[in-house]
Amino acid sequence: MTGFSRILLSLTTFLSLCLPACVFASSGHAAETLDLTSSSIGYLSLLIFAIAYLFVMAEEYTHLRKSKPVLVAAGLIWILIAYVYAQHDMPHAAEIAIRHNILEYAELFFFLLVAMTYINAMEERLIFQALRTKLVSAGFSFRQLFWITGGLSFVISPVADNLTTALLMCAVVMALGKGKPKFVSLACINIVVAANAGGAFSPFGDITTLMVWQKGIVSFSEFFALFLPSLVNWLVPAIIMTFAIEKNKPEGDGVSVQMKRGGVTVMFLFLMTIATAVSFHNFLYLPPMAGMMMGLSYLKFYGYYLKKTHNKTAKGVAYDPEKAEERLGDTVSFDIFKSVARAEWDTLFFFYGVILCVGGLGFMGYLGLVSNLMYNNWGATPANVTVGVLSAIVDNIPVMFAVLTMLPEMSQGQWLLVTLTAGVGGSLLSIGSAAGVALMGQARGIYTFGAHLKWTPVIALGYAASIFVHFLVNADKF
């Protein structure tokens, strides 16, 4: 068991001893719930969750896909919850709670599935290969490419959200860094940090900022007060990491790659899909996922057009199935369901397991317990700084949800602080943010938990610097 896992278990165990065992308590759910934080069932659930996460962190050594242990853990935790509630003649309380968690996952699932489908479609249309050719021919070195991809991640994520941005830029890095695993690994770390930092100063940049905005605590314009702290959060580790990047340039393969027919249109439809998702939330107050699913229909209809107008010959050359993938232009019929099938299913199932695991622990009372102790006993600043650290271990969505549920009395500066820390704190570990988890799947075996952990001290330095800058430039908000 790793050090921070011991700390997590020790902390939750210590906190749970402060409350009486198995008493009825009120929660955000419709029915009364049981406080299981001091029960053997609660302790066993914590142990199951910790063991599952140990397997997740050891994926690069065991080669066991990260979704498998958390799926088992989620099932076991909810079995325990259902058993206890059945014993107390409350059989439907667990059902209502798990349905609530499944609904949260469904919104994330469909959002991610559409984003991954578009990225796979752009890859199939050779967009990233064409971009790689242009960047290589432009003469950029690996260091310059490191800054270009990081800068684009920081700029795009406030609009496209950090997860979609990270997936998009990782595809570019994978194309640029063929045969250079060290560059790909460092560039992925830089992308995760930049995307999370860029998403922290925009209501659309991260799920946690979206939650704070929807709650009405921080107005749209007030988020931009976090721009400078977010920029510092990315720049500090990026400047240090850049010295580990080799100065030479990527080697070109001598082949000028052009996008397949419809590549530009697919990119335009992706931007339209993001705009639709933002509009659904901003103007219609509907889940962004619904806008993403509507955006998927854009690609499906366009895919139908590409398939109907597809020609199996190109410039008079007979169609050869064995070499069709190597040809440029309209040689391979577009099939959107191939793009759907190539989604990172292991990552999607991992999110299911994590959300249900954390949701189960929260239903037992652990999240509320920890939040109550932090804000009542420690004070707002230490608590908000700790929220960022916890979000790297547990996931920032349930942590922020717990804070918003408690609604502690804080100044606007403190609410901006917790928004910042919850957004950028996930960069401390690869499993701490949706962007990091998604990239572990996309760059499997290259960008790993261990590779990211080596640079955690540097990322932590940027985390501390961003907090200092926030207190410096936003002092009037405290």
Can you tell me about this structure?
With 478 residues, the protein is mainly alpha-helical. The chain has a domain of 207 residues. It has 22 helices and 2 strands. It has a two-stranded antiparallel ribbon. A hairpin with a 7-residue loop joins strand 1 and strand 2. Helix 4 runs antiparallel to helix 5. The two termini are 40 Å apart.
Architecture blueprint of SSEs:
Layout: H1 3-16, E1 24-25, E2 33-34, H2 40-57, H3 59-62, H4 67-87, H5 91-124, H6 127-137, H7 142-160, H8 162-176, H9 181-199, H10 207-214, H11 227-241, H12 263-282, H13 288-308, H14 336-341, H15 345-364, H16 366-378, H17 380-393, H18 396-406, H19 412-424, H20 434-442, H21 449-453, H22 456-473
Antiparallel strand pairs: 1-2
Helix pairs in contact: 1-2, 2-4, 2-15, 4-5, 4-15, 5-8, 5-12, 5-13, 5-15, 6-8, 7-8, 7-9, 8-9, 8-20, 9-11, 10-18, 11-22, 12-13, 15-20, 16-17, 16-18, 17-18, 17-19, 18-19, 19-22
Quote the average pLDDT: 81
The CA-CA distance between the termini, in Å, is: 40 Å
Strand content: under 5%
Question: What is the H/E order?
Answer: HEEHHHHHHHHHHHHHHHHHHHHH
Secondary structure class reads mainly alpha
Mass-distribution shape: globular
Radius of gyration using CA atoms only: 23 Å
Supply database-style keywords:
single chain; 478 residues; mainly alpha; 69% helix; globular
Brief write-up:
The chain has 22 helices and two strands.
